[in-house]
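Protein modeling request. Please complete all fields; requests missing the sequence field cannot be processed.
Requester role: graduate student
Desired output: 3D structure, token encoding
Chains: 1
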Amino acid sequence: MTYKELDHDISEHHCEDSFTLLLDQIDEYLLILKDTGEIIHVNKAAAEKLDYALDELTTMNIKQLFPLSGRREVLEFLKGSQEGRSAQEFLELCSKSQKHVCMEVRLSRGTWEGQEVLYGLGKDVKLEIDDQKFKDYQSMLDSMPFLAWIKDKNGKYVIINKNFESFYNIKNTIIVGKTDFDFFPYRIALKHKKSEEELIKSGKNMLNLQPHHHEIGGKWLETFVAPFFEYDGMLAGTLGVAREITNRKLLEKQLREQAEYAELLFRTVPSAVLSVDKDRKIIRWNKIAEELTGYSEAEAIGKECSMVLHGVGIEGCYLCRNASESPLINETCKIVTKNGQIRHVLKSIAVLKNEFGEVSEKMECLEDITEMINIEEKLYERERQTQLELSLAARVQQESLPPPFSGDKVRVSTIFESFSKVSGDFFNYKWFERQNKLCGYIIDVCGHGLATAMQTATFKMMLDNVLLTGERITENDLKIINRRIMPYLYEGSFVALLYYEFDLQAKVLKLISAGITLFLAINSEECSLVPLSGCYLGIIDDPDIEMVTVPIRPGEMYCMMSDGVSDLIELHGVSKQQGFKGYLDWLEKLADCPERNDDFSAVCIEILQENDNKDTNVLDIKNDRDLERAQTIISEFLERNAAIHAPELEVAINEAMNNGFFACGQVHVKTRRVGRKLIVRVKDDCSGFNTKNVKSLTINNDLFDREFDELLGEEGGRGIFLMRAFCDKVIYNATGNEVLLMKKIRFR
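Delivered output (748 residues):
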């Protein structure tokens, strides 16, 4: 039901039960009042919103629903409606529980049970910023001596300061949530919208921006608008400051159109004004110019301009440059005062011509904007320092993560992609050889930004000392950790944690959950998300923490993850992949999907088969068919055991194998993986060659291209060069007919 339809219904009907029921069906808040503000009736929606019973409200005056600071507003509101003026406002009321309710209310006149009444329809006004930030930003903007405001990325006003309210005679509660199109001429609103969109895309800071001038209601404003970033570095919208420059605009117009009034304006404007003749000598110098520069009128008049006004970074007299031949110039620069201070000024230069069109005088208006520039520089420096701190914290966080691990029984790889520069996620693990056990944890501290990253670093030290000792861990250990971390968490913050322990001797996986409630289990038949239960840490003194044990077998894989990973898996579905590397590639692709809005941390563990780290091939090559088959077997061996090194190792092994085969017509090759090492032996039955030259051959990165080109003509020399480039060790026997290639495997 619309406002207009309801106006008609209330004016034409009496308060019958059926009509009262009808009013209770509408979503808007309805209040029916006497002219004095006494409440006659409210509908169900209004009563629930204000948290009062109907019979309580009908004994109250609407003034009682307003905070003390807003009672004058409601009196003006009621008076405006009674006098027939427009009566539509954003008003703040107090519910019974003293919570503030912000709504848009429209008052109209009508009848109810035969008497003249005022009735109001209201609807919610929601702000897109929490209360604490609203207070912080409001306090910051109110301290500025200019008009100031913050808009969101859609151009909607979030906060305006007191100077803005005073200049436009508009209240904060009215403009919040609306755009310039609701208040300003379409041409100006469209210009603002395009400018703000360009700024958000460019990300320029305030020191690189040019001011915008526009006229509203006969008053001129100079506006600076810049992208606005939250404390965590995320773009939130735009921040604008403006000041009235009507006097300066009037001065510029008068200087252009009426030179005869120059002297009067020169003496009356509230800015530093001076002029020079065609010989660059100062002929006018007002009182404000004295205050700005420190030079009296007597000291300045008759002096060449460059002797009094010293520009910073400007050669010669900046007032008298040839560029000032244009009718009017506006420019920002610096000057050095008599006592050596540097002041930022905004100058406007007007060129006055005689009846012959010759320049007879150049007049300049200097406005001191040092205070504004200092504020802008402080804002910029604070932003720059914050970004430096974030970058350092991100680097420390990345370097603190554990490296991949591969042993005879288990292999571990990790993925860590923070949503912003620093993360609230962290993980660590440790292999205990004597106990044949892998212990580790993954945590997710709520929040983003530098403060959260510092909390995470603190918890890492605490968790490493408790969970990664090889000792038996129980639910009680996590409860002790809960009590220790409570002092380090600010209000509303909490920690999700999952401890895992792969006991390869007992063949069980122990999991203790405190807020991380899903892990990924993979075997040859299926892969699935397995649920857990457990309370977050840092919320209550004695949280419920669950411990479960799961039997494990060789060939199985597990992924311990933060909710940034599990949320995406639930959104896109579990996808079965081929092998350990296949699941790692799938998770990395998942981290790049556009729906990700959180940190992405995963620890992937593979329980190895007994022979997974001992892969051996023996190849006896006697003809071209054997050679082709051997190349295929070696390629598969490398892809299976060292996929990340496969391309370059395949080149090195083929060089050794081809050299022996082409020299003797047959060659013997043996490939073997032992733990994290690949060993390849290539032997032919020929007499070999002098290996002394091999020992003197070294890889020089600076001369790589030249040395490689020199060896291209010699088949054997090129092969030796490539083997040395791609392998950790290349060892020839004394005869020179057998070579041993060794490479340490790096998984990711």
